[in-house]
Design brief:
alpha+beta; Heat Shock Protein 90; 373 residues; PAS-like_dom_sf; elongated; phosphoprotein; six-stranded antiparallel sheet; Beta-Lactamase; 21% strand; 3 domains; Helix Hairpins
């Protein structure tokens, strides 16, 4: 038997006879009700009876109206059914509101059949509608992610260009003027090249770490580690950059404190927070690193007396969608990715990263690492 259009009058007429549509139940997987021109129900199949919770004998001779569908729920738009009955529409998606607050979406199509009667075909499309809504949401989210990543790649390419331009520029100066330069000048150029190279390396390291974290490939490997040594290592890595601005980095390395952490992640957090403090601290400024330890957590604070951050800017700092970045006191640049990465890595330790800042006074970044794994 050929497959017929699920909403065609041909299919209903095929099973029509004078015995009051007794063969409607042979049409598979369809809730069907037959009405006359006034909307009085002539017959219905078992699927429709199950849909409304009534027997055929209870339906016959009654008016097709919203009250029939109370088992499903309350019509959200009471006029939608009337539009079908009055032939203002031949198809409609009608939403019913259930007592528990959820919705049921029923697709109804209307066709004229023999004797000028009407066949109504009912199909519950709630799951399809929900799936379609989810697919649309995922599509929008993916489009936004692609847009964010494209913009990030553009920013990254621009920021990588800056240190490489510096490296190439100073290398060219050295090549052209090596025989004329004094020892002090050569050391100065080498220092600039070293700083630019370190900036480029750190930027690439952060990028690879962020990509790994986003793809779920950056696995956390915790062990007991002395956080003092991680702070000292980060201070050593950034000592040259701090020296150029004559910034004094103070760390009272008294008590040796153990934390349960991923050492590489925490070192990266420390380096980013210290680098950020140096970036926004003026020449001859100070940065203080302190550790507070109690039975529940270890708290590390990095405080500077730099330019500070406005409230509006603070709201943007940890937003991955924005990659918010501003130039430092010496016009240093960045992608804005570092703080986003710090927040993500601290959260992987079930800790918190907070900021307290006042414009013109300075900023304090504080992160915690819980004692419980």
């Amino acid at each position: 038997m050929p497959t017929l259009n699920p909403y065609s009058n041909e299919e209903v007429n095929k099973y029509y006879n004078d015995a009051n549509f007794i063969h409607l139940d042979k049409i598979p997987n369809k809730a069907i009700v037959i009405c006359d021109q006034q909307g009085i129900i002539i017959s219905a199949n078992l699927d429709f009876c199950a849909l409304v919770g009534l027997e055929v004998s209870e339906l016959e001779g009654t008016q097709m109206k919203a009250d029939l569908f109370l088992k499903i729920g309350i019509l959200k738009d009471a006029n939608s059914l009337n539009k079908l009955l009055n032939w203002k529409r031949r198809d409609y998606e009608i939403e019913f509101l259930k007592k528990n607050g959820t919705s049921v979406i029923i697709e109804i199509k209307k066709e004229r059949i023999r004797d000028n009667n009407c066949a109504f075909f009912f199909n519950d499309i709630t799951k399809q509608t929900q799936l379609q809504t989810k697919l649309e949401a995922v599509t929008i989210k993916l489009a936004k992610l692609n847009e964010d990543k494209s913009r990030f790649i553009s920013v990254l390419a621009h920021d990588l260009k800056s240190p490489f331009n510096s490296i190439l520029g100073f290398v060219t100066l050295l090549k052209e003027n090596y025989s004329k330069c004094s020892r002090e000048e050569i050391e100065k150029y080498i220092s600039y090249i070293d700083g630019a190279s370190q900036n480029a390396y750190n930027l690439l390291e952060d990028t690879l770490a962020w990509i790994g974290a986003e793809n779920g490939k950056f696995k956390i490997a915790k062990e007991d580690f002395e956080i003092n040594s991680l702070i000292l290592a980060a201070l050593k890595d950034l000592s040259l950059i701090a020296h150029r601005k004559n910034i004094n980095m103070c760390f009272d390395n008294k008590d040796q404190i153990m934390v349960y952490c991923d050492a590489n992640m925490i070192k990266m957090v420390l380096r980013n927070l210290l680098s950020n403090a140096i970036k926004f601290t003026n020449k001859d400024g100070e940065i203080h690193i302190t550790i507070a330890d109690d039975p529940t957590e270890t708290k590390v604070s990095i405080k500077d007396n730099g330019v500070g951050i406005s409230e509006d800017s603070m709201l943007k700092l940890f937003d991955i969608k924005g990659f918010y970045s501003t130039k430092g006191t010496e016009l240093e640049k960045g992608t804005g990715m570092g703080l986003v990465l710090c927040k993500e890595f601290i959260e992987k330790h079930n800790g918190t990263l907070s900021l307290d800042s006042n414009v013109g006074v300075g900023s304090t970044f504080t992160f915690t690492i819980p004692k419980i794994a």
